Amino acid sequence: MTLGQHIRKRRLDVALLQRELAKKIGTDNQTIRNWEVDRTKPTHRHMPRVIEFLGYDPFPEPVNLGQRLRGYRRVHGLTQRQLAKRLGIDPSTLADWETARHRPAERLKSCLRGIVDDDRAVV
User: Fold this and answer.
1) In this predicted model, what pLDDT tens digit does every residue of 70-87 receive, in sequence order?
2) Which of 4, 65, 95, 101 could bridge 38 with an S-S bond, Cβ 3.0-4.6 Å?
3) Could you tell me the CA-to-CA distances from 74 to 9, 14, 42 in Å, in that order?
4) Span 46-60, pLDDT tens digits
C-alpha cells in the first residue's frame, strides 16, 4: 500500500470528508486529494499529524541506523538540516549517515541508536 492509500483507507474507515481531514492535519482538501491519489506526498512538517491520524507509521520497520534516523525525522517532522542542528553536526554529515555513505564514530553511533530506538518505542 502507498502512503496515499493508507491515508484514504483510514479517512474512509473513520468517515471523514477530505476537508475535515485537511482541517485536522492543517492543510487544505486539495492537498489531501493529491496525497490520496499519490500525486504528491506529505511534507516533513505534515508527517507527525499524518502518523498520528493513521495511528501508526506506515513505513517499513527500519533495519539500519540510516533508516532509523530517517524514521525519527519523519515522526518528528524534521528536515535533515533541523535534525543536524539539534545534533550539532553538519547536514551533509547526517545525509551521509542516512545513505550509509559514511558511518558515525562508534561513540556517536551508540548515542544515536539510543535516541532513535528509545523514541521509536514511544511512537
Assistant:
1) 999 999 999 999 999 988
2) 4
3) 20, 24, 10
4) 999 999 999 999 998
- Left (φ > 0), alpha (ψ -120 to 50) or beta: where does 70 sit? alpha
pLDDT above 80: residue 91: yes
Distance set, CA 22 to CA 13, 16, 116 (Å): 16, 10, 29
Residue 72 neighbours by CB under 8 Å, 6+ apart: 78, 83, 115, 116, 119, 120
CATH superfamily of 65-122: lambda repressor-like DNA-binding domains (1.10.260.40)
Are 53 and 18 in contact, with CB atoms under 8 Å apart?
A: no
User: Considering the domain 3-54, what is its CATH architecture?
Assistant: Orthogonal Bundle (1.10)
